[in-house]
Write a structure and sequence with these properties.
By secondary structure, the chain is mostly helical. It has a domain of about 90 residues. It is built from six helices and no strands. The longest helix has 18 residues.
């Protein structure tokens, strides 16, 4: 049996569907550009795109978002990498200072992603 405290704790880490989509896009971008070989996620940088949430919310929410999109996450990542490198090489995107990730304009890059790539729709399973 779940207590009211468990439910409140869980709801504390719930974010709207649009923010989940933004989280997915932000993680793809941050991992690609700043994640190095191990693809670590800079949660403080992710927060710059959605300052209404604390970084811990993204850390707790990411496993669910990742699992919801696991069938197409690698394809999205590859498509982003390919399109991003091409646009960057053409000078269509601002230069990046890899030594100062917090100066990176993540919001601009999320908009670029949304303008150039399409997220597959996720159909929420019905509760039994």
């Amino acid at each position: 049996m779940h207590s009211r405290k468990d439910s409140t704790h869980r709801n504390k880490y719930t974010i709207p569907k649009e923010d989940e989509d933004t989280l997915l896009i932000a993680v793809i971008i941050v991992r690609t550009i700043f994640g190095n070989v191990d693809r670590k996620i800079n949660w403080n940088l992710i927060q710059k795109a959605m300052p209404q949430h604390e970084p811990v919310v993204f850390q707790r929410r990411w496993p669910r978002v990742r699992d919801m999109h696991k069938t197409h996450l690698k394809k999205l990542q590859s498509e982003f990498e390919e399109m991003y490198l091409e646009a960057y090489a053409k000078g269509q995107l601002p230069s990046i200072n890899l030594q100062q990730p917090m100066s990176f304009d993540l919001t601009h890059h999320i908009k670029w992603f949304r303008d150039n790539l399409e997220l597959p729709e996720y159909v929420y399973p019905y509760a039994c």
